[in-house]
Write a structure and sequence with these properties.
754 residues
Amino acid sequence: MRITHWLKYFYHSRLGLPLLLPLILMPLCTQLSIRLWMADGYVYLIYLPLAMLVAMLLVYDWDAFPGIALGLSSYYFFRYNLLTASVIVAVFLTVLMLCWAGYRLHSRQRWGVDYGEFRMMSVRLFWLAFMTPTLFVFTMHVMTLLGLTPFNHSVFSRSALSLHTLLNYQSVLLSCLVMIQLCYFVIRSIRKPVFISLLARRAISQMATGVTKAELTLWLGLLIFLLGVQLQFEQADENLLNTDYGLPLFLPLMLWAAVRFGYLITSLSWAMLLLCIYQLRDRFLSPETDPHHLAVISLNMLVFTLTILLMANISTRQRFALARVKRASLSDPVFRLPNLRALAQDLAESPRSTLCFLSIPDLDRLSRTYGLQMRIQYKRSLAIHLMPELQPGEDVYQLPGFDLVMRLNYDRHVERIENVAVRLKDYQLSWDGLPIHPAVGLSYCSVRPPVNHLHELLGELSAMAEVSLRSGVAENLQQRKGQTAQRQVAEKIALLNDTQTALKNGGFQLMVQKIAGVRGDDYYEIRPQMADRYGEWVEYSRLIPVINEFGLTWETDRQAIIMALAFIQRHREKLPGVRFAIRLFASSLCRPQLARELQVFMQEYGVEPWQLIIEVEESPMLTDYSWGNRSITQLRHLGCRLAINNFGSGYASYNQLEEVQMDMLKISPTFVSNMLTSSLNYQIIESICMIARLKRMQVIATGVESEEAERLLRLLGVDYLQGGFISQPCALQDLCESAEPTPPTKPDEGPDPQ
């Protein structure tokens, strides 16, 4: 424990590691600095001590100055006389203090952030990479002009505008621009070795999406190859690779790194590459090199460095900005909850999930009363209230309107959903002192990736959540054991695609069933039928919900009407006076121009209005002031007859007969099929017939399956009979081919539906 305490003190105290590091690094950096002898003295190609001292300040702040002063003194007082060493040390300390003070004032509290922080790059470029070397070279030159530093055989020059001074200035600029961050990372790693792993993670995070180990290996291999070329080829005047011509070949590789690998990898690799290149200076430079040519080479390296670092900075910042935008797109900015896009992404990343849909319809009314802020606060608070039930990786997602959805892991999902339901009942929001506790409907289902129809699946869950509001328990969307809701939705989407294809290509076939009149005035009921992609006939009960849900009602009704009218026109001579009953959806009946459109169709095909009987399902849409009731009046005025279908089921009631004027009434087959065994059903049929006569409506009995049922219905005064005992359904074209129509065949076996 005592050793650990002293080590911690040594690493962090200004009298410990900050005091020792400059003593060690100052000689090492000077040794690694590259000098070239010229006629009037030495010139530096790259100068590392100044960059190392600035890096010490970035790590230790003002605590680094005692160590810097000690390191400078120990190095220069053994190489120069007392006056010269004192002047050099004073220049170093003065320049560092002035520039560091300016940097601290400019950067404020963010002075010590890592080099991965791009918002500080402009401040550091100005104070540390430009002002520090500029002020250092200027002050040193002034000291030289004052005679305080030697001229002969040194790096100092008499003229401020000489090539000698320019080369030294460019070398100091280059070293501060590139080597400060390299020295900074080395010092940080020495101070705290765990920083190496942090640096590696940051470098990986800056890489572009899609960078592979193969790409990184290829880039590194090309870089080593170019360095090997500089080493292996023999020195010769005719070999361009042994001259400064080979240096620009590194630029495309570094631009590749800048665009793909991020700022950290690019800056560190370029710094180490520069050290290697200048260590191999004898491959492209010699003492006889023209100073003007040397200045151009140094300037090119400086421009290359600025280009590479700026390109790396811009590319990395763009990737980070794009990542922030992507993260923002996964969250609702108002509710501050993950949105539907985040849900889709999490579902794709999970092997199996359970979706829990929370429907709170009362929020709509409450938000109109208390304002939208109440809805926002309720959803936020409810999501927080449910968080204790969630495992890592699970979340509550915002949906438009008054709904939320949760994603749970599949394991033990039924038990956990029960806990969620209990927790929902315990929750209430206090708004202006009033408790807000609206009813919450809960439905759930299991899904596997890929979830291709998420929006449709949520729609199914929403409908099931409404059932939960009435039942008071969580409802499972999986109707069939072992089949996920995702598969059910996929089947519905496939059926929708088949329906749309049939509507587009005329793939519907009309089926007819005879409805026998007790007075001999028979007619035929028409129903559209469709085959799926596998050639199997789709049950009409499966087809109706899809057509209703996806708004294909009028397209389906329109095609059935046109096909029926075209059949009457083609077979007018063989089937004179034939009548068809066509069932319309309630939404089609509410079209304002329905009567006008039917009139145009009948005039086009030469069909009389009395040949059409329009059947409509009883619906809340058929109120006294709705477009549906207006269409009924217009169609009756046109000459068509109208019938209520399946009277006694669904929304149908005796009270509705007072609001809707109809010509015919079809009794639901549920009453007819049980009338022989149930006296109640017999009495219901009898009462329906009595009311129909009072309303001057004709009665149609459906579901007649026996001779006894037919006899009883005739005695009750039923006008028309329909069912398997009367006639079996057949294809429309079979009415003209035989007296006894045959059952329909598959599309590939039967005749053309037209």
